[in-house]
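Appendix B. Raw example, untouched.
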Amino acid sequence: MTTAGDTESRATEHRPAEPPRPGSRPPGPAPAARGGTAVLVGLATGLLGLGIAELGAALLAPDGSPLVAVGDAVIATLPGPMINFGKAVLGTADKPVLIIIIALVSLAVAGLAGWSELRVRFAGIVPVAVLAGLALFAIGARGPDSALAYVPMIIGSVVAYLILRALLASLRPRQTGPVSAGRRNLLGSTILVAALGAVGTVAGRALAGASQAITEARDRVLLPAPSRPAAPVPAGADLRIPDLTPYVTPNDAFYRIDTALQVPRIDPANWSLRVYGMVEREITISFAELLQKPLEEHLVTLCCVSNEVGGSLIGNARWLGYPIRDVLAAARPKAGADMVLSKSQDGFTAGTPLEVLTDRNRQSLLAIGMNGEPLPVEHGFPVRMVVPGLYGYVSATKWVVELKVTTFAADMGYWTPLGWSALGPIKIASRIDTPRSGVTAGTVMIAGVAWAQHTGIGRVEVKIDNDAWQEARIADVTGPDTWRQWSYEWSASPGNHMITVRATDATGQVQTEQSAPPAPDGASGYHTVSINVS
């Protein structure tokens, strides 16, 4: 039997929801509470963006640290009395305090972005864009080495804003319905985002601090005078032709190829080289001990096996170091050994023929200096290997910490299991540096470099279209371990022309015309350029 009360109850259950009365508040947190939460979300996502930017800069380009860049900009604009006051009050803590202030101001702007985004959709992008723009301007003012310096800040800003929008979606006022699951989980998500941002920021600053410490340690290294200085560079070694690569490559222009995602930062005071394996006597050498040894200086050209025909992954520098053959002599390799497996601080390995490293006519070095200064960090500081005549993947180990005397049958370097040749003698090659674009009819200087390391270049020839080969002028060199500049005067006539170059080494072996890719043992073939003569 149905009672009147039951009927009334069911009618209430099926009655449509009434629209909100004028002045009533939709379900969910009060506007003031939502605004405060939005600020907290903005702070969390701002911290995440900062963490991404700082960690990314530490890994990709130290010049891209937004905190350091803005700090430098602030210091540059502050009046002298204020800077002196800061130093007097804070002492050595002045820079860390400035960094903290900049971070707090940045987070405050991020909180404003959260509040603005909640009130008006897309309004939060304005504070984010202003903050990112100022940071990018400050990074640019530092004169970064590459465009990579801008990337971490851009990525951090974009990710921070997108996550801000996603998190604030649960705070939007709703007219009906229960509180969303997203709103219930908002606090947890915000804490997680903030934690990730804090970890990224701390890790980025820690890596940057380690980098700065190693830079300062490198600056304190005083290179001793070599007991055997490099041969003087002959006046005729550098032809000084416009657009021709210089005979000695500046450090900042020297190619860099390695497997390191993060460049190893090694304090020379903690560095040591272990020589072990098939040896009569295992030895360990510290950096201080290495500095005390009779060091030698040699000009040596290094080339990467990945260098394409006509490519730029090659450079010539003046290296200071200790002969590897003397290190191995002290360890006394055992009979049957035929390879030295060198290992880098970052785990990279290279297998080099033992007979090459012990050859008294080949200047293989544990190098500590490059062009008159300590090795740049990205080129192996504090110690790297330099071996004339072999591609870098089997010889030029940077940040070297171990030499294991072994055999090719027992061990393999990093690249050999990936399909590259275990032996890597550099092939005879030549390159046209100029001209590479259109020229005017008349006398045109064709010039470039050629190399046959540890053998030396004996001849370079140039061919125009299908004409006969013509001998080019070759420059002087310090020895057989460096590349050689060459030049040829061409009477250019109007039209499209093909210029080809080939080299012959000092023993009479001619560079092969057979084209081959870099894998598995180096590219080959003639370098040819197409030139329009007007």
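End of appendix B.
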